[in-house]
Amino acid sequence: MRNILVTGGCGFIGSNFIGYWLKKHPKDKIINLDKLTYAGHLSSTKAFSELKNYKFVKGDICDEKVVDRLMKGVDIVVHFAAESHVDRSIKDPNVFIKTNMLGTANLLNFALKHNVKRFHHISTDEVFGELPLGKGKFDEKTPYDPRSPYSASKASSDYLVRSYYHTFGLPITISNCSNNYGPYQDTEKFIPRMITNIMKGDPVLIYGDGKYVRDWLFVEDHVRAIELIIKKGKIGETYLVGGQTKDVNNLQIAKIILKIFGKDFKSNIKFIKDRPGHDRRYAVNWVKINKELGWKPKHNFDKWLQKTVDWYIKNEWWWGDMKKVSEKFYAKR
Ligand code: NAD
Ligand code: TDX
Question: What is the pLDDT of residue 196?
Fold first, then answer.
């Protein structure tokens, strides 16, 4: 039995992680510390919220008292909590600096005080900046070059986590993953926004020329990678996690999704104002985690995109109210 503190477990990846972990490790205990910001949804924890070995605590990772209390007796910290949306970081960077940098620092201080055995930090490939179209991939040796307040705040948190390993010997690991997709992703993000726009009879909105490329990773593949790093990863190391290698741009994804709904492409897309500092392309080389830990992404993009669409069609109860919140934000973007 291990005591695990998960932060941000009411968000997209955190809730998928807890559901997966409790199924596979029913003897472990999980405490989920989440502030329930606009991006935190208790409804995402419905499948496991009644389990005896699961406990939810509403609180802020920046709060010293709460973190000090919860960290006592913890074996493993899995740190997902963050402000995660690039567009919001352009509108209001301060909350990103506070949660992603100061919140991470607060967790590190109390993890050290209470001698946790592992601090696993979830980060992003966006810390590496952008790649040109069609050329190159990020790997663990790529220099950091963050270009948005979001990615800069995540890069800072990565540096802090590493510094606690080198300076204080805190047993850390870090994973930097690419764009996740799958169930329980907030409707502010590209794929769920497209799906729910189509369901509401609205056009798919494309930033700039739409020829931006992301490396798409099914959320369960990501969660499996985190599990392996926690079990077999080397202390102090960073692992990059990416999807099945195929460059697909935003317009091509819009085309696939519109086709799933039987809708014509040209008449259902609308080009809108681009994102300032919009990174052109991300691509991840996941050879290290493959060679050292035996991980690879199992989920095929076309098949699991279709399954993700099916999930949103079946679960309007989950995203109906959230959609109003995300579109309210976008109306002012
Ligand atoms: P999300 O926005 O869906 O969820 C974030 C969660 O953190 C929410 O439940 C929110 O309430 C909680 N939270 C925010 N501020 C908090 C605070 N101060 N104290 C406690 N809880 C707080 O995010 P996500 O997409 O699940 O991402 C999880 C992690 O993975 C983040 O660290 C993100 O940077 C990283 N990441 C995400 C992706 C992706 O594609 N979604 C890709 C790479 C890395
Ligand atoms: O309506 C839209 N139209 C559009 O063209 C939205 C919401 C997005 N886009 C574009 C911008 C990006 O090129 O789609 C792409 C994906 O956008 P987001 O879903 O906002 O993701 P991104 O900016 O790539 O960042 C995501 O992946 C890395 C997560 O939000 C981060 O938390 C993670 O670190």
Answer: 98
